[in-house]
Write a structure and sequence with these properties.
The protein is an alpha/beta fold. Helices cover 33% and strands 20% of the residues. The protein has one domain (6-141, 206-282): Alpha/Beta hydrolase fold, catalytic domain (Rossmann fold), CATH 3.40.50. Strand 11 (216-222), helix 8 and strand 12 (244-250) form a beta-alpha-beta unit.
């Protein structure tokens, strides 16, 4: 085994491409975990988590998020836009198909962080036959009723800024990165309405599909995570009452691990690894 990933490049129909970073275990038939990143986060950030899972005996793949590729992608702007719909119907299926082709016969678990978790849950609800389970860490509903009052105007201002500029300059707002205006529009609609209501040519209420999901789900929230507090993840998992849900809330400080937030747990995977392995080993 090596911590240097194999790169599988995938071509999108609109001309851009993205990579899967693959960390193969010794046995190609052991379960494979496909990690989908948070908004604004590059796939390489997940190397410590992927390496830890590989060293524990699992196959791992990390997908690049559209707009945040190391190469082959395009920066969001007036002339290049996409939203949750394109992630759900194009990038996620392509990633899953590539992983299945690379590890034929291996059980597949989709692992989503933040935005990657939102889309992964919706993908799993629409495509349960493609997966053996779903893992969510640091995933939240951004419905304004769950957050302090300033969040509502902030979220809707972000939508307006993205519409005016053609993209959302996340680095200036200290939130996310350079994001596509339709990604922010879909994010802002969930903040405004509380529902995952997006799609083309007509919007779909994906909450209705989430309510039918029955696959195994592990959902982990972390004490001290400002962007995905316990109650905000609870608002996600309540949407799939039929799922075989394992819900865990972890306190890193109680484990003697400091400096953990919405992102840094990825760099210190020992926070979540025992919980992940216990759940995976009991599938």
């Amino acid at each position: 085994m090596t911590n240097t990933p194999e790169i599988i490049r995938l071509q999108r129909s609109e001309g851009t491409s993205f990579a899967l970073q693959v960390y193969a275990a010794a046995d190609p038939l052991v379960p494979v975990i496909l990690i989908q990143p948070a908004m604004g986060v590059k796939a390489g950030y997940y190397t410590p988590l992927a390496a830890a899972l590989q060293e524990a005996g699992y196959n791992v793949a990390v997908a690049e998020l559209r707009g945040h590729e190391e190469s082959g992608g395009r920066k969001p702007g007036h002339d290049y836009d996409f939203g949750y719909h394109e992630l759900l119907t194009e990038d996620w299926p392509q990633s899953v198909a590539a992983v299945k082709a690379h590890f034929p016969g291996a059980p597949l678990y989709l692992y989503g962080h933040s935005l990657g978790g939102q889309i992964s849950a919706i993908y799993a609800a629409h495509n349960p036959q493609q997966l053996d389970g779903l893992i969510l860490t640091a995933v939240s509903s951004v419905h304004w009723k769950l957050w302090p009052l300033p969040f509502w105007p902030y979220s809707q201002a972000a939508v307006l800024v993205a519409k005016l500029l053609g993209h959302f300059p996340g680095e200036k707002f200290r939130f996310a990165g350079r994001e596509a205006r339709s990604v922010i529009a879909d994010w802002g609609r969930q903040a405004r309405t509380g529902r995952f209501w997006f799609g083309k040519p007509e919007r779909t209420d994906h909450d209705e599909v989430l309510a039918t999901m029955t696959i195994p789900v592990l959902a982990i929230s972390l004490q001290g995570d400002f962007f995905a507090p316990r109650h905000a993840m609870d608002d996600i998992v309540r949407r799939f009452p039929k799922a075989a849900l394992t819900r865990q809330h972890l306190d890193p400080k109680a484990m003697g691990i400091d400096g953990i937030d919405h992102f840094r747990w990825v760099r210190k995977p020992q926070v979540v690894l025992p919980t992940l392995l216990d759940w995976l080993n009991n599938r």
